Amino acid sequence: MADESFFDEPTEASIKKHRIVSKYFGGWANIILPQTLTREGKIMYVDLFCGPGRYKDGTVSTPLLVLDHVINSSKLRSVTQLLFNDENAEFIEALKHEVANVPGVETLRYCPAFRTESIGHDIIPRIERITVPTLFFADPWGYAGVSLDLIEAAIRHWGSDFLFFFNYNRINMNLGCEAMNGPINEFFSTSRAERLRTLVASLRPTQREEAILKEMQSAIKDLGARVGKFTYRSRSGTRTTHHLICVSKHREGMALFKEISAKESTSFEGVVPSLEYDPSANPNQSTLFSGLEPLEEDLLITFAGKVLSPEEIYHDHHTGKPYILRNYRQALLHLEETGAVSIDPPRASRVAGERLPPDARVTFKRTS
How many separate domains does the chain show? Predict the structure, then answer.
């Protein structure tokens, strides 16, 4: 549980986190709302570790950013239920006060709800009973309380996604500490945690991170979901501290998270975003290469002999990779120039300004 000093003033990393989550909520709501209006008629946003809503320096955090978005959307005001939870009762009282003083909060159909629950396995049955599309956000102080079982319960209903801060640094430090077996077993499940302890014991730091992330991502994929991440690095840029993880069963959700994260990246390799916050990065560093060369080579191999639209190619390929939709369009146009692919309609007959229309068909040559 975070102490009060954490909310004195936000770091740049925290500001990026608040921005990514609040923007994701807005995009997620737009994606699911048309279908929701004909079915449940309601959506939810659940913040499991919400904090007081505002830093002592006056900066607002995620709960108030999401609330502001709902108030300013005529469509969302009538269908959105906000639920804010924090084990710290003082934080909840502070957030209640903040919410009550937000102009327009009285226009909401559903009054924001507040809880002071401890997050753990005991809350899972209650989450399983939620029967409307819900965006969950979990930013624990550490990692206790978040588990694969919790994530599975959260995303079981159609349209429900889960965002959480994965405290890689603490898990990495505690993975070999017997006293911390309980929380780590709870997060991964005992069998996965034991397998991971054995695996990482002899690995170098970079290999440990890859192994831990791979195990976490594999476990989430076993739930039938896709995984995206935005990485936070230390001030020196030499090590990872956290990952903001997005869990979604829908390709649109994963694409949305990727596009938002790209805009928050602190550096680019050519035109390819790092999908990282690295305080040591030089955003003005230039390169002679576009950064798309590996993507172009992989596309030719992956889709050899196939005919697909640019968006089909993107959704089938981008998960787990740094490329955004614009990168795929750039790569396909370059491959067309080199003759490696053909595109219908051909360049000469395309409408001016429409370099690659959404309904274009890209034909990849068969490999010999």
Answer: 2
Q: Specify if 263 maps to a domain.
A: no
Domain residue limits at 325: 293-364
Whether 310 and 207 share a structural domain: no
Pairing of strands 43-47, 134-138: parallel
Q: Which has more pLDDT, 6 or 96?
A: 96
Distance CA 51, CA 224 (A): 31
pLDDT of the residue at 4: 52
Evaluated on CA atoms 36, 39, 41, 42, the torsion sign reads negative
User: What is the tens place of the pLDDT at every residue in 59-83?
Assistant: 999 999 999 999 999 999 999 999 9
- 19 phi/psi in degrees, rounded to 5: -70, -45
Give CA torsion, residues 118, 120, 122, 124, to 10 deg: 120
Amino acid at 360: A
Specify if 350 maps to a domain: yes
Model confidence at 177, in pLDDT bands (50, 70, 90)? confident
- Determine the Cα–Cα distance for residues 213 and 194; give it in Å rounded to an integer: 15
Whichever domain contains 303, its CATH number is 1.10.10
Whether residue 278 lies inside any domain: the answer is no
DSSP three-state, residue 121? helix
Same domain, 93 and 182: yes
Q: Residues 114, 85: contact at Cβ < 8 Å?
A: yes
The lowest-confidence range among 101-105, 179-183, 362-366 is 179-183
